[in-house]
Amino acid sequence: MNDESTSENQVISGKNISKSGNQEEFTAGFEKLWVWQKAHQLMLEIHGICRTLPWEERFKKRDQMERSSSSIPDNIAEGHTSYYFKDKIKGFYVARKEVGETQNHLKALQDKHYITRAKANELIFRYEEVIRGINGYINWVRKKSQSERVKYISKSDYQ
Q1: Residues near 40 by beta carbon (within 8 Å), at least 6 away in sequence
Q2: Can you tell me the distance from the alpha carbon of 73 to that of 41, in angstroms, rounded to the nearest whole number?
Q3: How many CA atoms lie within 13 A of 132 on its CB side?
Q4: How far is the C-alpha of 21 from the C-alpha of 18, rounded, in Å?
Q5: If DSSP codes are grouped into helix, strand and coil, which group holds residue 6?
Q6: Which pLDDT score, from 0 to 100, does residue 128 have?
């Protein structure tokens, strides 16, 4: 394959690659998940809000919000890349708990008049969508786990 026949975006051995200049950018499997994408976008927005908080909140609400909002896509990614079904689900449970913590921080920012009620409600509502996505992914993993178990039991019955 010569340079003229290669495209800007390729799939090599099942991995997405984007070439920009001399660098190749690989796309991890979890980045394709819409729930991870939404959680990541919300995390970026939360970090933007945190940069506007007063200095005295730097090691209080700001630090807590940045950590909890970052933990959501982190745990979705961790769950997605885990090998065992129980480990996958565990990561999604942690992500779901971090959503609740982040929503609570948003309410606190609203109560302290750092963000408007409308902004807090909008972000909380968008995080509810992330929770629904996480719940759907948990249910999908459970079903997959059960079908794999049935395959294993069925194969062992015939041996």
Answers
A1: 73
A2: 9
A3: 7
A4: 10
A5: coil
A6: 98
